[in-house]
Structure formats: structure tokens, C-alpha cells
């Protein structure tokens, strides 16, 4: 069985968990705290970031994008019409563009601020990044998420899914990042109905159930986090 080193509040880990579930790849989840910089973990991924997958043969695949490429190569053909990285070159480029948009741009402008300020700073020692939340950073993230939500709405008003007519990696990376922001109650869903309906479709998929069932110690989810009819 494959192993996935992850953390519950890491959006890239959530992304790969959703993908593995969609592909029905049996996986043993191993929670990792990357800030501890365990020597054994750094041997697997010297960059010290999550997620890291070890397949059934022992092959180490570090990072969400390499894991996506590996999974497409290993399982894509067998998935047929359910393949999450499209066969068409144009659609593949668009899917990869949106993976980068959410993994890099959305993370830098929204996810990282909220996760750090609202969750991680509460549990880290003072000398390792723990402190009171930076309210200016939280305000910036809440402002930025509106722009990204409008962009999601713009895309899905013109397409069936984010990258085109079919479900792809792009939908799951976007939903993974939004899910942790939604957990914290900081997604203004009422501001874009198209984006809300798109997220509701994803949230209703069986692959989402484990995420919706999880809670973080000391940080309860928003009132509608697990509500499929939010």
C-alpha cells in the first residue's frame, strides 16, 4: 500500500488526498509536522515540504505536482474518461496553469496567511514562529480571497469545470485550498453564486467526506463547513 506524508491543514496535502481518493488508490496516511524538520523526512524531501508519497514499490515522490504527474502516468490510462489530467494538449496546459495558480498564487495571497496566523502560530513555540496573530495579514487574506473567488466564478460560468468541460486536477487543487479557508469561515460564498455551486458539486463527492469529517484541535470548523447545502 502507498503512504502519504501529509498534514491536515496543508492545502497541498488535501489536494493529493482528494486525488488519491478519486483514483481509488489505497493509501496509508502519515501525519507529518514539517516545521519539526525530522531528519528522516528531509531524506525523503530535502525541500522539507508536504506532501510526500511513497508508492507500493518504495518509490519516493516528493511534492504535489510530481505526485500528480506520477499518478497520471501510473493510473491515467486505466481511468479513461475519468482521467484527471486531460489527454488534449491544450487542456493539459490549462490544467497545469491552474494547478500553479492555486498552489503558488492563491497560497501566497490567501492560504498561507490564514493557516499561519489563525492556526500554526497558536501551536508553535515562541522561538519557532509562535506568536499572536497578525491581524493585518488576516485582513489582507480575506480581501484577496474575494478576487480569487470571482476568478473561479468567471471560469465556471464559461466552462463546466475549472479547466474545461471535464473534471480535472485543477478543480481539486482549487477546492483543497478553498476548503481550509472555508473551515476557518473566511470564504464569502454569497458573493459569487457560480463559484459556490461549483464548490458544492465538489464538496458532495465521496472523496471529500474524510476532509469534511476532520476537525482541528482547538479550532472548530465554520458552521457550514460540512454542510452540503451551504
Plain-language structure description:
The protein is of the alpha+beta class and 230 residues long. The chain folds into two domains: 2-82, 3-Layer(aba) Sandwich (Glutaredoxin), CATH 3.40.30; 89-213, Up-down Bundle (Glutathione S-transferase Yfyf (Class Pi), Chain A, domain 2), CATH 1.20.1050.10. The chain contains eight helices and four strands; from the N terminus they run E-H-E-H-E-E-H-H-H-H-H-H. The protein has helices at residues 11-22, 39-44, 64-79, 89-123, 135-156, 169-183, 193-203, 209-213, and strands at residues 2-6, 27-31, 52-54, 60-62. It has a four-stranded mixed sheet with strand order 2-1-3-4. Strand 3 (52-54) and strand 4 (60-62) form a beta hairpin. Helix 1 (11-22) crosses helix 6 (169-183), helix 4 (89-123) packs parallel to helix 6 (169-183) and helix 5 (135-156) packs across helix 7 (193-203). The longest helix is centred in the middle third of the chain and has 35 residues, at 89-123. It is globular and about 50 Å long. The chain starts with a strand and ends in a 17-residue tail after the last helix. The model has no long low-confidence stretch (mean pLDDT 94). Keywords: Transferase. This is Glutathione S-transferase family protein. Pfam families: GST_C, GST_N_3. Residues 1-79 form the GST N-terminal domain. GO terms for molecular function: glutathione transferase activity.
Amino acid at each position: 500500500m502507498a503512504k502519504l506524508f501529509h498534514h491536515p491543514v496543508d492545502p497541498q496535502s488535501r489536494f493529493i488526498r482528494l486525488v488519491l481518493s478519486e483514483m481509488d488508490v489505497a493509501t496509508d496516511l502519515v501525519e507529518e509536522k514539517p516545521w519539526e524538520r525530522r531528519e528522516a523526512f528531509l531524506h525523503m524531501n530535502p525541500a522539507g515540504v508536504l506532501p510526500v508519497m511513497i508508492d507500493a514499490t518504495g518509490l519516493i515522490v516528493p511534492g504535489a505536482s510530481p505526485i500528480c504527474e506520477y499518478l497520471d502516468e501510473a493510473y491515467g490510462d486505466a481511468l479513461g474518461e475519468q482521467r484527471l489530467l486531460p489527454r488534449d494538449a491544450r487542456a493539459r496546459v490549462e490544467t497545469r496553469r491552474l494547478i500553479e495558480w492555486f498552489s503558488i498564487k492563491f497560497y501566497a495571497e490567501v492560504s498561507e496567511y490564514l493557516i499561519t496566523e489563525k492556526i500554526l502560530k497558536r501551536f508553535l513555540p515562541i522561538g519557532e514562529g509562535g506568536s499572536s496573530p497578525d491581524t493585518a495579514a488576516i485582513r489582507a487574506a480575506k480581501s484577496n480571497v474575494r478576487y480569487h473567488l470571482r476568478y473561479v466564478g468567471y471560469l465556471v460560468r464559461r466552462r463546466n469545470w475549472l479547466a474545461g468541460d471535464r473534471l480535472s486536477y485543477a478543480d481539486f487543487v482549487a477546492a483543497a485550498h478553498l476548503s481550509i479557508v472555508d473551515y476557518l469561515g473566511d470564504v464569502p460564498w454569497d458573493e459569487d453564486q457560480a463559484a459556490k455551486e461549483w464548490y458544492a458539486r465538489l464538496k458532495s463527492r465521496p472523496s471529500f467526506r474524510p476532509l469534511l469529517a476532520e476537525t482541528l484541535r482547538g479550532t472548530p470548523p465554520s458552521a457550514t463547513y460540512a454542510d452540503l447545502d451551504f
